[in-house]
């Protein structure tokens, strides 16, 4: 009898808690739906397509982001037009998810592109940089990776999805200039394998590819590249930080670990704030985001600065490789493509704020997870949630799915230079 009474009391408590939380959950669902609709149907001249409540919500978010970034309405309208294009492509991929992917060029290592393909891509980047109507579209996109975004897009599980969507937006902008270009990635593990001080003479940082690696960039497609705050783009690759040796590039062993180790099977094991994996070189807990940090430091100058890093076009080639490494991991844990990896998005901050499991987190709903909470909107992408960034549809939009569909790239080490 006591047991039945206890169960009855517990059931009543749970029903009561659920009834208190339900209005907040309904509100969150409404906000996500409102923001998605607002961006999907974005009209720079009017918000009359939205109901009054949604108009207010969207304009509050618009103003908040505009103030964060210190942007003009022209810049904001440009960003929202790009996100609108991304969302519409996403929905199209969802509706055709079971159809064979055709007519899509896979991303490649930058050094494997033909001279014509590389010239077209780099030329589109230069065109994107060139101001039109007083606004540089490149600088507008680069500015999204600001200090405001640092809290939302780094130091947690949203790092992977946020940067994937960011790359897709950047690629969308390039394809508006030239429809046949696709981002390439800089596989810095190839340069890591160069012995010692010879790394600074890699062809990646020469006139043939990204431009010189030390001092003002004076050759290559990005020669005399002007930075938003003034001054010319500089680099300082492979520079020893006395008394320490030069920073490391991305290590092949780490890529192979997340791509092939059968014991690493969850996103919680590769993101900051989660359990991590053991770095085979140091024995410490490590993550894919931390490994990505190394190359930023190796390039030096503005690439060391989380706010300014996208001012160097190398940022996007580096992050396209980080995205590729993530995709190798995703294909390992979902080889048949029949798992919705949005459900593997880690709510790691539940573990952080309640490590002993002795706190009733229902009392902290929905703030558990903060900026990296699964259903929180991505900063700068109000129509997309953090969890959405793990969707396979964004993989298809990233021109990465062909790695499996066509076998264009079978193994990480299959590239030659």
Task: Write out the CATH superfamily name.
Answer: Di-copper center containing domain from catechol oxidase
The percent range for strand residues is under 5%
Question: What is the ordering of alpha helices and beta strands?
Answer: HHHHHHHHEEHEEHHHEEHH
Low-confidence parts lasting 5 or more residues at pLDDT below 50? Answer: 5-26, 98-102, 360-368, 401-417
What is the CATH level 1 assignment?
Answer: Mainly Alpha
- Largest sheet, described in full? 2 strands, antiparallel
State the strand order across the main sheet: 1-2
How many individual domains? 1
Helix content: 40-55%
Mean pLDDT: 81
Using DSSP, what is the number of strands?
6
Give the CA-CA distance, first to last residue: 76 Å
CATH architecture: Orthogonal Bundle
**Number of continuous helical runs:** 14
Give the CATH topology. di-copper center containing domain from catechol oxidase
Q: What structural class do helix, strand and pairing data support?
A: mainly alpha
Shape: globular
Walk me through this protein's architecture:
- This protein is mainly α and 417 residues long.
- It has a single domain, classed as Di-copper center containing domain from catechol oxidase (di-copper center containing domain from catechol oxidase), CATH 1.10.1280.10.
- Helices cover 45% and strands 4% of the residues.
- A hairpin with a 2-residue loop joins strand 5 (377-378) and strand 6.
- Residues 5-26, 98-102, 360-368 and 401-417 have low confidence and may be disordered.
């Amino acid at each position: 009898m006591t047991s039945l009474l206890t169960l009855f009391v517990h059931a009543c408590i749970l029903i009561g808690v659920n009834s208190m939380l339900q209005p907040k959950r309904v509100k969150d669902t409404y906000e996500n739906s409102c923001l998605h609709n607002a961006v999907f149907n974005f009209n720079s001249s009017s918000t009359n397509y939205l109901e009054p409540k949604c108009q207010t919500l969207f304009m509050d978010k618009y103003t908040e982001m505009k103030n964060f970034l210190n942007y003009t309405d022209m810049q904001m309208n440009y960003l929202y037009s790009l996100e609108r294009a991304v969302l519409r492509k996403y929905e199209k991929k969802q509706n055709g998810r079971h159809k064979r992917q055709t007519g899509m060029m896979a991303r490649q290592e930058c050094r494997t592109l033909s001279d014509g393909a590389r010239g077209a891509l780099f030329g589109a980047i230069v065109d994107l940089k060139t101001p039109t109507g007083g606004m540089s579209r490149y600088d507008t996109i680069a500015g999204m990776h600001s200090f405001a975004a640092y809290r939302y897009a780094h130091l947690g599980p949203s790092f992977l999805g946020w940067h994937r969507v960011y790359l897709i937006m950047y690629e969308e902008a390039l394809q508006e200039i030239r429809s046949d270009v696709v981002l390439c990635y800089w596989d810095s593990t190839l340069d890591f394998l160069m012995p010692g001080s010879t790394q600074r003479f890699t062809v990646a940082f020469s006139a043939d590819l990204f431009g010189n690696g030390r001092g003002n960039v004076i050759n290559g497609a990005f020669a005399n590249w002007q930075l938003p705050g003034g001054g010319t783009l500089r680099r300082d690759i492979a520079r020893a930080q006395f008394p320490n040796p030069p920073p490391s590039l991305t290590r092949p062993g780490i890529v192979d670990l997340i791509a092939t180790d059968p014991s690493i099977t969850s996103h919680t094991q590769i993101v900051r704030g989660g359990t991590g994996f053991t770095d085979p070189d140091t024995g410490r807990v490590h993550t894919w985001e931390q490994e990505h940090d190394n190359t930023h430091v190796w390039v030096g100058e503005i690439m060391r600065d989380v706010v300014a890093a996208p001012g160097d076009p190398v940022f996007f080639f580096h992050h396209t490789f980080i995205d590729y490494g993530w995709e190798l991991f995703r294909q390992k844990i979902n080889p048949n493509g029949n798992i919705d990896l949005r459900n593997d998005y880690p709510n790691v901050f539940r573990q952080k704020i309640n490590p002993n499991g002795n706190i009733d987190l229902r009392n902290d709903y929905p703030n558990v997870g903060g900026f990296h909470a699964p259903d929180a909107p991505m900063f700068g992408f109000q129509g997309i949630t953090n969890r959405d960034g793990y969707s396979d549809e964004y993989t298809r939009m990233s021109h990465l799915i062909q790695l499996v569909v066509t076998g264009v790239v079978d193994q990480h080490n299959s590239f030659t230079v």
